[in-house]
Amino acid sequence: MITMQIYGTSRSRSLRVLWLAQELGLAFEHIPLDWQQCGQDAAYLALNPAGTIPALVDGDFVLAESLAINAYLARRDGRLWPQGEQDEACFWQWTLWASSSLEAPYLQWASQALWLPEAKRDAGQLAQACQALQRPLARLNVALQDRDYLLGSAFSVADLNVAGVINGLRRFDFTHYPAVADWLQRCLTRPAYLAAARLP
Ligand SMILES: N[C@@H](CCC(=O)N[C@@H](CS)C(=O)NCC(=O)O)C(=O)O
């Protein structure tokens, strides 16, 4: 019996949660609410007063924030959850870093490089966004130089949360960050990611 619902279209931060649900083979109902609708929909606002997608409904329990939902689901399942206190601490380090230091410059870059119609793009703002991404990408590149994944040799929810924040960055010029390019390629060619990205 399906007791879990994931709200949010895959063309949003909900993709991170849909990706994890596919990795773990969870049974869930997908409600592909759009980011333009979610703040106006009274029934959804009653569920998630933040009015943002994604949200997870698990029986009586409702949770918002994509990266927190992933922590909840992965910890409960165990398979992609870090083993041991130090790896768990590193998972939180990477997840909080992705949210606080990586996401804002990425969104700035993505709107200029991918989302805005050509006529509305601004070369100066794109250059500024590329500049702002240098520091977090250099940090990620150093971390990935001697390992395939953030916590070692195996893919974990730490990789999923960080790669899920910068999934559109595949089209970035990675000349100076080859380890990030290889890692992102490994993460974003996983069948579970591709399956989640095909959802509405
Ligand atoms: N930090 C939140 C951000 C959620 C968020 O802002 N989602 C966007 C869609 S990607 C949204 O719902 N936008 C509509 C709005 O803010 O009204 C998370 O990771 O879940």
From TrEMBL:
PROSITE patterns per UniProt: GST_CTER, GST_NTER
Domain GST C-terminal: 84-200
Top-rank lineage group of the source organism: Bacteria
Swiss-Prot/TrEMBL keywords: Transferase
UniProt xrefs under CDD domains: GST_C_8, GST_N_GTT1_like
InterPro entries: Glutathione-S-Trfase_C-like (IPR010987), Glutathione-S-Trfase_C_sf (IPR036282), Glutathione_S-Trfase (IPR040079), Glutathione_S-Trfase_N (IPR004045), GST_C (IPR004046), Thioredoxin-like_sf (IPR036249)
Alphabetized GO MF terms: transferase activity
GST N-terminal domain segment(s): 1-81
Pfam families named among the record's database cross-references: GST_C, GST_N
Family: Belongs to the GST superfamily.
Name by which UniProt lists this protein: Glutathione S-transferase
Species whose genome carries this gene: Chitinimonas taiwanensis DSM 18899
